[in-house]
Design a protein that fits this description.
- By secondary structure, the chain is mainly beta.
- The chain has one domain: Porin (Beta Barrel).
- The protein has four helices and 22 strands.
- It is elongated, with a radius of gyration of 24 Å.
Length: about 425
């Protein structure tokens, strides 16, 4: 019983703080602007709207006057799991739509100094499975939300060189639910607590305020060419959660203890480090109306090597834990382009997204694989001051797990549709 609950709890906490299954490597969303999304999110070297706060802070010097940009992305994943082997049962995750938001405001001065403020969700999403599915003891419902509040400043040091830097205040919250079947538990010679089927495990919590910083460079050796570099530092977030159980069997008459003594409600604490994120990009104006961008991204996922959690109440069933995760640093390559025709802008992009997740430590809420992704976008300039952008991205992958440390081998099949929308205003 002790072994069963500790493994289950390790997975629960990992899902609780890293509940993402459908987008970029690990749990990084990256959907911060429909214009950039249409070009495969290759925007570090261009960074010519208010979303430069996220992509490359130095790009704020491209803007003059007051500029606002706001939008969201509809993320609709479809995930099927077949297994665990040797079974061939296929289960589909519950259909859900996630809506990470982005908002940016920038004021660019004539003296080369620019100020900005961004609010966006760089990490998050979640998953939901039917309560009776074969992996119910690993995950039923999970969701993570992080809000980065990011004031930024940029300065044009020379006519062709800009620098920028920002500071982020991070707010986050989490939700996790699983369903476990508790076997009969011996509490004295010949005395057993009865089995408890379909016991709900519910964890909800908030992250303590966390902080990080970012900076960027933008260099234009010629009018047609710009090169950018952007870095966002890692951030450690500590989560305080409330653990509750539902559907626990009542304490049998005459017994000294019951299930509620072995599975007590209480507090839990876990820490997770959001990785550092280094990007380089180039933007080239190949023709008067054609721009081509390329980005390289390197993310320091090695920071997630061990998962540890401390619990207020330890029993023979629930204890503090420490388990190896051993994630790997990942690389992503992006290529995109934009062709402008009068008020219209037509965009397309390609992404190769490397996964940091070893199959040995993969679970139903964190399947992953190297991915080939495709994007398309359309922009329209309604007036000199108002622009709208829309984009579509398709993601799919298959990953078979044969060496699972949690004994949950099987095959994951993912297909995800993403629709991004943004409205921009400039004065």
């Amino acid at each position: 019983m002790k072994k069963f609950t500790n493994v289950s709890l390790a997975i629960a906490i990992s899902i609780l703080v890293l509940s993402h299954q459908v987008f970029a490597g690990g749990f990084l969303t990256g959907t911060q602007n429909a214009k950039a999304m249409g070009m495969g999110h290759a925007f570090v070297g261009q960074a010519n709207d208010a979303s430069a706060i996220y992509f490359n802070a130095a790009g704020l010097t491209n803007l003059k006057g007051i500029n606002f940009l706001a939008g969201t992305t509809l993320i609709m994943p479809k995930v099927d799991f077949t297994g665990p082997t040797p079974l061939t049962t296929t289960t589909s995750a519950v259909a859900r739509t996630f809506t990470p938001i982005n908002f940016y405001g920038v004021y660019g001065m004539d003296n080369g100094l620019s100020f900005g403020l961004g609010v966006y969700n760089p990490y998050g999403l979640g998953s939901e499975w039917e309560p009776a599915w074969i992996g119910k003891s690993l995950a039923v419902e999970t969701e993570l939300r992080t809000f980065y509040i990011n004031p930024t400043v940029a300065y044009k040091v020379m006519e062709n060189l800009s620098v920028g830097a920002g500071f982020s205040y991070i707010v986050s919250n989490v939700l996790f639910k699983q369903v476990i079947d508790i076997p009969a538990i011996p509490i004295a010679p010949g005395v057993f607590l009865p089995a408890g089927p379909n016991v709900g495990v519910n964890l909800e919590g908030n992250g303590k305020p966390a902080y990080t910083f970012n900076f960027g460079l933008l260099y234009k050796p010629m009018d047609e060419l710009s090169v950018g570099l952007a870095y966002r530092h890692s951030a450690e977030i500590e989560f305080d959660g409330d653990l509750t159980f539902s559907n626990l069997p009542a304490k049998p008459t005459g017994y000294p203890i019951g299930h509620s003594d072995l599975f007590p409600a209480g507090k839990g604490v876990s820490k997770i480090t959001m990785p550092y994120d280094l990007r380089a990009g180039i933007s080239y104006k190949a023709m008067e109306n054609l721009t081509i961008n390329a980005d390289f991204q390197y993310v320091g996922w090695e920071s997630y090597d061990t998962l540890a959690a401390d619990f207020e109440k330890n029993t023979a069933a629930w204890k503090d834990l420490s388990t190896a995760k051993n994630w790997e640093n990942s690389m992503t390559f992006r290529l995109g382009g934009e062709y402008r025709m009068d008020e219209f802008a037509f965009r397309a992009g390609y992404v190769f997204d490397g996964s940091p997740i070893p199959t040995k430590t993969m679970d139903p809420s964190l399947p992953g694989a190297d991915r080939h992704e495709f994007t398309f976008g359309l922009g329209y300039q309604f007036t000199p001051n108002i622009r709208v952008d829309a984009a579509y991205q398709y993601i799919s992958f298959e990953q078979e797990v044969t060496d699972s440390a949690i004994l949950f081998n099987g095959k994951y099949v993912n297909s995800t549709n993403l629709f991004g929308f943004n409205v921009g205003f400039g004065f």
